[in-house]
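Support request from a user on the community tier.

User writes: "When I paste my C-alpha cells into the form, the page sometimes reloads and wipes my input. The last time it worked, I copied everything first. Here is what I submitted, just in case something in the input itself triggers the reload:"
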C-alpha cells in the first residue's frame, strides 16, 4: 500500500507550506490557505516574502531560520514570531505564530525543499498580554493604595505640625521660598501671607538683621544653625512697629536622596517671656544680694563699735574674716541665681580668701558636683575655718606642710551621698584640743543637713576632717 502524503497533509488540521531552496512556494495544504485567507493559485510560484510581505524583526527572524536550515540541513524552530497577514479588505491582521522548518533532502543529502509547519498562537499571546495587563493594573492599584496611605499620613503630619505649639516652617530652593508654615509661625509674623514667597519678600525686616545670610550659609554648607534665645526684631502684630522678641530656633538643612541640600526646616519657640522672667529674677537676686551685703556690713560695723578694745581685736579679726567668707559664698550663689553651686568652685574661692600665696601647697581633687545653696554656704564656711586653722596651727604653718582636699559623690536611694575630705601632712605635731571653739562646732555641722556630719581626727601624721551627707 502506497501512502499519499500530500493527501494526508491536505487533510491535516495544522497549516503546512512547502518551499524550494529559493524560498518559492511550491505547495500549501488547505488549513494553511484557510488561516492565511489565500488561494493556492495566488501563492504558488511566488517567493514567500513576496506573497506575505514583512519587514523589521519579523522578517529577520524568519529569514535567519530559513538560512540555518539551508546551511545546516537540520530542522529549526521559531517559538514566537509576529507575522501579520493581509485580509480581504487589503489591511493587515495581527497574528503571532510558532513555526517549525523541516528540510527535505535529495539522495545527495542536499536540501531540496523546506516544510514549514506553523501554529497560530495569537489567542495565547492575547491571553498572555491580558494577564500582563492585569498584573500592571494590580500593580497600579497597589501603587495607588500606597499613595493614598502616604497622602493620608502626610495630611496627618501637616495637621500635627499645624497644631504644634512651637513655630514650624519649610523653605524650598536656594531662594528660601516658603513651602509650609504652621499656625504658630504665621502668628509669629503677624499673619502675613507667606507661601510661595521668599523670606526676603515676606519678611523684609529679616534682611538687615543678617538672617538671609545665615540661611544662605546653611544651604551652602549643609550645617544647621542654632539660635539660642536670639534677639529678633519683627512685625509681630499687624499694624504695629518692630517688636523685639527672643527666639530659640534651628535652621536644619533638608537633604535629597543624593545628599544635596534642597530646602531648610525651621523649628523653634518664642522665649521672650522666659528671658524677661529671668532678667526680672536676676534683678531681684542682685537686689537681695546687695541687701545681704549691706546687712553684713551693718553687722560688722556694730561688732567693731561694740568690741572696740585692744583685747577684742584678735576675735574681731576672726569675726570679720568669717563675715567675708559668708559674703563670698553669697556672691557665688548670686552668680548661679541661687540654684546651686559647684563644689570645686566653692572650695577654691574659700581657699583664695585665706591661703592666698600658699595655694600651690593645697591640692583639690574631685568631680564636677553641684550642691544646693544651704550646703554651699555651709561648705564655704567649713573650708574657711579649716584653712584658717591650718595657717595658724596646722600644716600650712610650716613651709613643708601640705593639704590634700578630695570629694566624691554616689547616687543612693535618698539622693546624692557626698563625701568631703581634708587631709593635712608635713605640719607640726598634732594634738587633740582641750576644748572646742566656735570654729570646731561649725566644722562639725558639716553640710548643715540632718542626715550627715563631720569626723575630726587628730593623728600624728596630720589633722584629718571627713564630712559626709546626703544632699
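"...and here is what came back when it finally went through:"
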Amino acid at each position: 500500500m502506497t501512502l499519499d502524503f500530500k493527501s494526508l497533509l491536505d487533510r491535516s488540521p495544522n497549516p503546512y507550506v512547502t518551499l524550494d531552496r529559493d524560498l518559492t512556494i511550491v505547495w500549501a495544504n488547505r488549513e494553511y490557505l484557510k488561516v492565511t485567507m489565500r488561494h493556492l493559485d495566488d501563492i504558488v510560484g511566488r517567493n514567500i516574502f513576496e506573497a506575505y510581505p514583512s519587514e523589521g524583526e519579523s522578517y529577520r527572524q524568519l529569514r535567519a531560520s530559513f538560512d540555518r536550515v539551508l546551511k545546516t540541513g537540520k530542522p529549526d524552530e521559531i517559538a514566537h514570531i509576529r507575522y501579520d497577514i493581509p485580509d480581504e479588505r487589503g489591511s493587515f491582521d495581527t497574528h503571532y505564530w510558532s513555526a517549525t522548518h523541516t528540510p527535505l533532502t535529495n539522495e545527495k543529502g542536499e536540501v531540496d525543499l523546506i516544510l514549514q509547519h506553523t501554529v497560530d498562537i495569537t489567542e495565547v499571546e492575547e491571553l498572555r498580554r491580558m494577564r500582563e495587563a492585569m498584573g500592571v493594573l494590580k500593580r497600579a492599584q497597589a501603587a495607588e493604595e500606597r499613595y493614598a496611605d502616604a497622602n493620608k499620613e502626610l495630611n496627618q503630619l501637616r495637621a500635627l505640625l499645624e497644631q504644634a505649639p512651637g513655630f514650624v516652617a519649610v523653605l524650598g530652593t536656594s531662594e528660601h521660598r516658603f513651602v509650609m508654615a504652621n499656625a504658630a509661625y504665621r502668628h509669629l509674623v503677624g499673619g502675613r501671607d507667606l507661601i510661595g514667597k521668599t523670606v526676603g519678600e515676606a519678611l523684609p525686616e529679616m534682611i538687615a538683621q543678617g538672617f538671609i545670610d545665615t540661611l544662605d550659609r546653611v544651604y551652602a554648607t549643609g550645617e544647621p544653625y542654632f539660635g539660642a534665645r536670639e534677639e529678633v526684631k519683627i512685625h509681630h502684630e499687624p499694624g504695629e512697629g518692630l517688636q523685639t522678641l527672643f527666639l530659640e530656633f534651628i535652621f536644619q538643612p533638608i537633604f535629597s536622596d543624593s545628599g544635596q541640600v534642597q530646602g531648610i526646616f525651621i523649628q523653634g519657640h518664642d522665649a521672650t517671656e522666659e528671658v524677661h522672667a529671668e532678667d526680672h529674677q536676676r534683678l531681684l537676686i542682685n537686689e537681695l544680694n546687695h541687701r545681704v551685703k549691706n546687712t553684713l556690713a551693718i553687722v560688722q560695723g556694730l561688732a567693731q563699735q561694740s568690741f572696740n578694745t585692744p583685747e577684742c581685736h584678735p576675735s574681731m579679726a576672726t569675726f570679720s574674716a568669717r563675715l567675708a567668707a559668708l559674703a563670698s559664698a553669697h556672691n557665688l550663689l548670686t552668680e548661679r541665681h541661687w540654684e546651686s553651686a559647684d563644689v570645686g568652685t566653692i572650695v577654691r574661692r574659700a581657699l583664695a580668701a585665706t591661703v592666698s600665696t600658699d595655694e600651690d601647697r593645697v591640692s583639690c581633687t574631685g568631680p564636677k558636683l553641684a550642691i544646693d545653696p544651704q550646703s554651699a554656704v555651709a561648705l564655704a564656711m567649713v573650708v574657711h575655718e579649716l584653712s584658717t586653722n591650718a595657717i595658724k596651727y596646722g600644716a600650712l604653718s610650716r613651709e613643708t606642710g601640705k593639704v590634700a582636699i578630695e570629694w566624691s559623690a554616689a547616687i543612693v536611694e535618698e539622693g546624692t551621698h557626698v563625701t568631703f575630705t581634708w587631709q593635712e601632712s608635713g605640719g607640726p605635731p598634732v594634738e587633740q584640743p582641750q576644748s572646742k571653739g566656735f570654729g570646731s562646732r561649725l566644722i562639725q555641722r558639716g553640710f548643715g543637713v540632718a542626715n550627715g556630719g563631720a569626723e575630726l581626727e587628730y593623728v600624728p601624721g596630720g589633722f584629718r576632717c571627713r564630712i559626709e551627707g546626703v544632699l
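Agent notes: The reload is a front-end session timeout and is unrelated to the input. The chain has 15 helices and 19 strands. The CA atoms of residues 194 and 202 lie 6 Å apart. Escalated to web team.
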